[in-house]
Write a structure and sequence with these properties.
Elements (H helix, E strand, L loop, with lengths): L7 E4 L9 E7 L2 E7 L13 H14 L8 H6 L10 H18 L10
Antiparallel strand pairs: 1-2, 2-3
Length: about 120
């Protein structure tokens, strides 16, 4: 199986989640979305517990609904910040985080959201 990197990887691990992780990339005008469901073992040691498999199967089946309407419900579910309505305090917080990350890692820092 050949894999390609995601342009965006989102941690959506919360109540009502689409998945634990959502990977997004655009390739040739097509939007590719990967929903990743993580199942941690209910016991200290990994095993073959049917209960654990039922749980992750249920997550995958519920996750299929996010493909409805060209994945628009998923995209609307994921942005947590409206860029247009962000307060000055929120923008300063983001700027501080961006400055720190860029200084420490010499890497990039991007914020995605509607508007």
């Amino acid at each position: 199986m050949r894999t390609r990197p995601f342009a965006v990887l989102i941690d959506d691990d919360r109540p009502g989640e689409a998945a634990d992780l959502v990977g997004i990339r655009v390739d040739g005008g097509d939007l590719h979305v990967t929903l990743v469901h993580c199942k941690y073992s209910s016991k200290p040691d990994a095993g073959s517990r049917l209960k654990d498999l039922y749980e992750v199967r249920g997550q995958a089946m519920r996750g299929a609904r996010w493909r409805d309407n060209a994945a628009l419900p998923l995209l609307e579910h994921l942005p947590g910040l409206s860029i247009r309505s962000a307060s000055d305090e929120q923008l300063r917080l983001i700027a501080g985080a961006a400055s720190y990350v860029q200084t420490v890692t010499k890497g990039g820092f991007e914020v995605y959201g509607p508007d």
